[in-house]
Amino acid sequence: MSCDAEHDQLVADVFARACTSRGVLEHVTGRWGTLALAALAEGPFRFNALRRKVDGVSEKMLAQTLQALERDGFVHREAEPTIPPRVEYSLTPLGAEVAGRLRELIELVEGRVQDVMAARRAYDESKAAVAG
């Protein structure tokens, strides 16, 4: 597979270095993209409310993330012409589909975090025994 247009048809291949799909995947699966999409799956948010929900994200990173997700068609930005402007973010139908799948992954990870912690302990103990 390639990411070149062939007969007016794009064949996406995330494994191809220059494929657009790789950049889109980075926007969706990056730490802030995943968390922003998952939060927006709960409903529309104003910027500061979303920033509080996604604990730890800087204003700059959230703005950049939302802009990338909006450009990719996952997020809709609605700006009301008031003073100050009231801006609300929500998911597009495509964004809702992606967010649903991300929520499934998040729930899986959250549900298995004890297994991850046990694996980390076993790994650390085995490395300490070799080094010791």
From TrEMBL:
Transmembrane segments: none annotated. The keyword Transcription regulation applies. It comes from the Bacteria. It holds the Pfam family HxlR. Keywords: DNA-binding, Transcription, Transcription regulation. Residues 19-117 form the HTH hxlR-type domain. PROSITE patterns: HTH_HXLR (PS51118). PANTHER family: HTH-TYPE TRANSCRIPTIONAL REGULATOR YODB (PTHR33204:SF37), TRANSCRIPTIONAL REGULATOR, MARR FAMILY (PTHR33204). This is HxlR family transcriptional regulator.
